[in-house]
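Example S7 (structure tokens).
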């Protein structure tokens, strides 16, 4: 199968854009967690300023999410379910994926530097299972809006949801049932009254 250079450029552009959106989302989350940690530790007069790691982690974990999405992890497991279920399922699956990757990454770096496993993962929730589970729970909740957005985008159509959120509002050419769902209640009531008359 021969792929044109134009098609390859389009695909590379699309995947780079998707990666940057994922990395930006994760960076905002990690930066806010770093700021929160700085404030908490500052109350106890402990200096902490590792904000640069938020960007590095966002880039690394963003690539993991992108690869997971390209492998279609947890896709089509709940095809006819309300959108909240596939969003929560994907959030759970990707939380496990990200936590596992982060633990393996830190353990590998620690092993390279001659540290034990427990010393290597000390930065992840204090290195305890309770801390790791609490960070994972936060990550699960944070990923729900991200995957809800992507699941809704599948239904509405590629690029239409982005236009709804980030550009001037204009009427969209949506499927009939979805248009009824998204239209304001007063428009639905007036349309049903007109149909009854």
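Recovered sequence:
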């Amino acid at each position: 199968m021969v792929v044109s250079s134009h098609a390859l450029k389009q695909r590379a552009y699309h995947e780079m854009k998707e990666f940057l959106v994922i990395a930006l989302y994760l960076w905002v989350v990690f930066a806010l967690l770093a700021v929160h940690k700085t404030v908490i530790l500052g109350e106890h007069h402990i200096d902490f300023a590792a904000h640069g790691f938020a960007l590095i982690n966002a880039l690394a974990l963003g690539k993991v999410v992108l690869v997971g999405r390209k492998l279609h992890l947890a896709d089509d497991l709940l095809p006819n379910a309300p959108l909240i279920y596939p969003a929560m399922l994907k959030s759970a699956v990707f939380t496990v994926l990200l936590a596992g990757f982060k633990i393996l990454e830190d353990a590998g770096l620690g092993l390279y530097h001659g540290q034990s496993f427990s010393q290597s993962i000390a930065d992840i929730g204090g290195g305890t299972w309770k801390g790791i589970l609490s960070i994972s729970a936060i990550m699960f909740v944070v990923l729900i809006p991200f995957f809800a957005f992507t699941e809704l985008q599948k239904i509405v159509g590629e690029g239409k949801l982005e236009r709804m959120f980030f550009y001037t509002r204009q009427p969209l050419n949506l499927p009939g049932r979805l248009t009824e769902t998204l239209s304001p209640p007063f428009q639905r009531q007036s349309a049903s009254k007109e149909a009854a008359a």
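Notes on this example. The chain has two domains: 1-71, 74-176.
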